[in-house]
Amino acid sequence: MPDVSLRLLEIFAAMMRCATTVETAEFLGISQPAVSSGLRQLESQLGITLFERTGRRLQPTAEARDLFEEIRPLFGILRSFTTRARDMRVGRVGRLRVMSTPPLGYSVGPKALRGFLAGRPDVTISYDVRRLENVLESIETGQADIGLILNAEKLETVNSEIIQRSQMVVLLPEADPLATESCITVEHLVGRAIIGIDQASQLGRLVAKGFALGGVRYQPQIEVRYCQTAAALVADGLGLTVVDPYSAQPYLEGRGLVARPFMPACEIRASLLTRKGVPHSSLLLSFMEELRRQVNG
């Protein structure tokens, strides 16, 4: 006996639920002759009479009822399969691996996650905050699906998309005399207690370059690894710092601090990183869209 096609079983199952071949055809979106032909073909393959005509209706035989009970779970599985595939297509199921450097990892990233996960109860996220070199390596090797970074230098080993351009700011107490300035130059910072970013890091090198361009020697009294640490120390009254605006933002609301543009301007770019040569899943595309919305909305 030849294998029975899924299409014939679908016609059979629909016929078991509908009263006539006309209703079955409407339900399946096919012609009534196609329904009748499919039922005859299935009966021929099985060697069993499935329907008997009573007046203008086809009545299922006892054999048909028994077979329908056998295949009923199959169509539940198919509906689940179809729903799952649709959810995957629109990015509503699956697992996403996200890695970020601290500035975006503690600001834009959580906001994007909140918006992205709303209405996606079946999505799971691996979320990690690391240094730039760790993020780059994870994207290059496929250990993470997407990376969020602040970048001032060109990257060749990964796909990079700029989602926002901004510049470094000076974070200082609102009671500081410099808070009245519309922007703060390196000359303003001469003789002040500066909390600096590790000059081995990209942002640290950027700040040092800004001081050099302004003709002032960069001599931080305290040097830290992360901009968030520098911001916290400013909040504790230990000096001023030049940081990215994402790290400064949490300290500008009710914390007694203000941010002013740092001059000469040091541009930074908020970028999304993905692995080269690997297509983006629907899930990843949806998260990328949410990130763009958060920084530009």
Features:
single chain; 297 residues; alpha/beta; 5-stranded mixed β-sheet; 43% helix; 24% strand
Description of the molecule:
The chain contains eleven helices and 13 strands. The chain is an alpha/beta fold and 297 residues long. The strands form three sheets. The chain has a six-stranded mixed β-sheet with strand order 8-12-7-11-9-10, sandwiched between helices. Strands 4-3-5-13-6 form a five-stranded mixed β-sheet, with helices on both faces. A two-stranded antiparallel ribbon has the order 1-2. A hairpin with a 2-residue loop joins strand 1 and strand 2 (57-60).
Strand content: 15-25%
**Share of residues in helices:** 40-55%
Q: How far do the termini sit from each other?
A: 62 Å
Largest sheet, spatial ordering of strands? 8-12-7-11-9-10
Tally of DSSP helical segments: 11
**Multimeric state:** single chain
Mean pLDDT: 89
How many β-strand runs?
13
Unreliable runs: none
State the order of secondary-structure elements, H for helix, E for strand.
HHHEEHEHHEHEEEEEHEHEHEEH
Biggest sheet layout: 6 strands, mixed
